[in-house]
Amino acid sequence: MPVLVGVAVLVLLVSLVASVATEVLWFNQLGFSRVYLTQLALRVGLFVVAGALMAAAVVVSMTLAYKHRPVYAPVPGPAASLDRYREGLEPLRRVLTVVLPLLLGLFAGSAASSRWETVLLWWNRTSFGQVDPVFGHDIGLYVFTIPFVRFAVGLLTAVVLLAGIAGAITLYLYGALRLSGPGARTTVAARVQLASTAAVLVGLQAVSYWLDRYSTLTNTHVRFAGASYTDVAVVVPARGILAIAAVICAVLFVVTAVRGGWRFPAAGVGLLVVVAVVAAGIVPAVVQRVQVVPNEARVEAPYIEDNIRATRAAFGLDGTDVTQYDPAQTAAPGALSADAGTTASIRIMDPAVVSPTFGQNQQVRNFYQFASPLDVDRYAIEGRDQDVVVALRELNLNNVGNQSWVNTRTQYTHGYGLVAAAGNQQGTNGLPDYLEGGIPSTGSLPEYEPRIYFGEYSPEYSIVGGPAAAPGDGNEIDYPTESGEARYTFQGSGGPGVGNIVERALYAIKFRDANILLSSAINPQSQILYDRNPRERVQKVAPFLTLDGDPYPTIVGDRIKWVVDGYTTSEEYPYSQPQVLQDATQDTLTTPTGTIAALPPNQVNYLRNSVKATVDAYDGSVELYAWDESDPVLRAWQKAFPDAVKPLQQMSGDLMAHVRYPEDLFKVQRTVLSSYHVTDPGSFFSQQDFWRVPDDPTRQGTAPGGGTEAAAQPPYYLTLQMPGQGEEAFSLTSTYIPRSQQGQAGRNILTGFLAVDADAGSTDGQKKPGYGQLRLLQMPTDGTVEGPGQVQADINSNTEISQELNLLRQGGTEVINGNLLTLPVGDGLLYVQPVYIRSTGETSYPVLRRVITSFGDQIGFAPTLDEALDEVFGGNSGVTGPDAGQGSGDQPAPGASGSPGASPSQGTSPSQAPSSSATGAPVPESVRAALQEAVAAEGEAQRALQNGDFAAYGQAQAKLKAALDKAVAAEAAATASPSATPAG
């Protein structure tokens, strides 16, 4: 047994040493060693102090109790049975005196070490510059100091209580304390020990009662959070009285310890209980029932007002720009002419739908993959900002054919390239209009390092590096070529070195993999890359932050950078309404199958986007920037870790151009604003004008049990110009509908539209004016503006649309509704929804076939956004969309990008060969003839599809493609000829 125990201890010790050593190497390589060492030292210090305090208190209590035991313990009556217990315990007494305090010390130390953030924040506390409305203290007292004092009081209470219990049991076992029998129940020494312990315990309770006065400011009630009328008028004074009573009771215990007699402290404890029941229980209930309930709206109004003010300030809503908006219901011709910028930027590529399309068009090999959903970014294309849908071609080791250790750890090490498609237009055959893609990467975006060693799907660890090799040569598979694979050797500092035997041994122990120690594929210049997920990587170097669930990639300079938003939070902000982060950020995209993670189920009542973090996709370097330098919580963390967070002034304009307003912050803010757009206390009390975020009308979330359930509509990134805004801006948007009252059916009319300016500009170290400005459009309270659910129902019930979609569904083709976007344009509200089809088969993928628009009671349904808008606005919307004339493969624009060769089962829609262009000019005869051939081929395809003849359908699709190619060539020839008639 000693040998086995010794081996177990040795294994644990070696594992612990390897864990700490590899963490030090990892943090040191990233330049964040101070973060880890500070955290480690504080955790170890708290563990030692709390554990030693607990163990010492228990040892002292048990030792004193044993030392002052009676020499001759009384044995008559029931006490005689204790002799047998003492005889049985005596051989184990010394062991128990060591083991029991040690176990209790381990538990206390573990619990205390987990509170290192509380201690560090208190030590580096800062001022908020704001005071609470009840006590007039700076809010920093509640956020930083009171949590630490509560932690200290709780720890000391546990120490005193457990030490007292251990001492009391020892006194009882050895006869110094009796529960029955004649004469004194305790010896003098036992009385002093017990009374002193009780005095300290009651004294700590007095401090706890005093702190409870401040806890009323974070109470939660049915309608609001914070101290209510009853709390301020009764509970706060009552807890002050309880604190004084507890102090008096503690003094009585001290008197007992000195002079003897348990009568006075017993009376004191009884009085304390009575005061607690009457003053803190009965009186508040009576005041609440008699004085508050009959006049609750009037009596609670000042406290509701405090709650509204504090909640809006704590979640950054106090500067929201609110505008009354009465949307027009009539779609007049030319109505969108004043919103040309917004209309031209309408995103018809749904990032939640087109990930399989990216995969089929741009994946290249099975061992690559794209995230789902994709991300939305913006780039300057030909001098104009363009919303784009982006994704990284990441490595997927599960699809590597040979799963040998050398292959999966040293050869297949990285992904390759960023793929980007225009968000507001489509390419040939309804495919994305790719602005960047292929291997090697080509396109309209800046040149960059395409290799992706750090990403959301990166392997657990890879071993890379070595002597520099000639282009195309190296240890690692770089990318596939027609003749095989190009090779590459990682150049840079991406992870700790594993070039010597000690480092290899440490990592062999860490990853439980002896190959790291034994493999000849590792050379003196090798590095090991691990903790490669950008979100997890930032979380390690900044454990004090709560991170956004959706990191996104972007090109900054000549590197791909992951951008991760970091939040500082608190649950101690006075009068602020708490929110559960997981509930507030849950929507149809935060599903188990997606890469967007919901935030943890933490309850907070203060939230700031205080840090922007980046992770280099090539070398994994992490940089933290202080995005909200006025945040007191961030300032406290900056004092704790002086070199961890860089000032905003060091952020480059190139990075600034791709920073966006974080999605999870916006989700929490829209949830809070659904109630706290009401600023009048009386209206807030009635809750009649409370809103909610509508369920996503196009998709359902995944329920915990595996089924489906309604989930909130996610917010959408769009470039738009809000009413009253000087120019269009990259924004994040959402909608509101009424919150159903108990027993009432929910209504899906639109009550509000929320947008936030998400464009930070492109100036070095300086935010663009207006960034982060929340704008809320409030609809008329007596209006019936249709919400997303009603608009989707109107679309689904439209006879013409249903017939054509049913036609597209024949042959097993799936129709997919894209995101339903809402835009305040044309003095009204425009809804836009792309419609995709997906054929059957493992290699099928969604392609854009139709665009649906809705304005008032008018609905448009056409192959392009431009045509759909014209259908709604009497044949002329007043703008020309970027996809005008492209179609869903029926009439591709000359030079339209996108991968050629759509799937043979992709359906097309009936169309007519036009006789004139949109400008009124006649279409050349050669073009019209080719388009007539396309119409005929399309008819053949539809008839074959209806008859289930897929061979004929494939032949017709080939004819259709040939005819379209012929039309494109004819139009290009006509345009090039000086004497040709201009084509539209």
Tell me the helix content: 40-55%
Give the percentage of residues in beta strands. Answer: 15-25%
- What is the C-alpha radius of gyration, as a whole number of Å? 35 Å
Overall body shape: globular
Structural class: alpha+beta
Please tally the β strands and state the result: 33
Query: What is the CA-CA span between the terminal residues?
Result: 91 Å
Low-pLDDT segments:
702-707, 887-921, 976-984
Largest sheet: 6 strands, mixed
SS element count, helices? 27
Essential attributes:
984 residues, single chain, globular, alpha+beta
Q: Could you give the topology of this structure?
A:
Blueprint (H helix, E strand, L loop, with lengths): L1 H29 L2 H35 L14 H8 L3 H21 L2 H8 L15 H35 L14 H28 L13 H31 L3 H30 L3 H4 L1 H14 L6 E4 L15 H5 L10 H8 L5 E2 L5 E7 L2 E9 L1 E2 L9 H7 L3 E2 L1 E9 L5 E6 L4 E2 L7 E2 L8 E4 L11 E6 L2 E5 L12 H10 L4 H4 L8 E4 L3 H8 L4 E2 L4 E5 L2 E12 L8 E2 H4 L18 E2 L1 E11 L5 E5 L5 H9 L12 H4 L6 H14 L4 H6 L4 E2 L8 E2 L5 E2 L6 E5 L8 E10 L13 E6 L16 E5 L9 H10 L1 H11 L4 E4 L3 E3 L6 E9 L8 E9 L2 E5 L2 H8 L52 H23 L2 H27 L8
Parallel strand pairs: 1-28
Antiparallel strand pairs: 2-5, 3-4, 4-7, 6-10, 7-8, 8-9, 11-14, 12-13, 15-17, 16-17, 17-20, 18-19, 20-21, 22-26, 23-24, 25-26, 26-27, 27-28, 29-31, 30-31, 31-32, 32-33
Helix pairs in contact: 1-2, 1-15, 2-4, 2-6, 5-6, 5-19, 6-7, 7-8, 8-9, 26-27
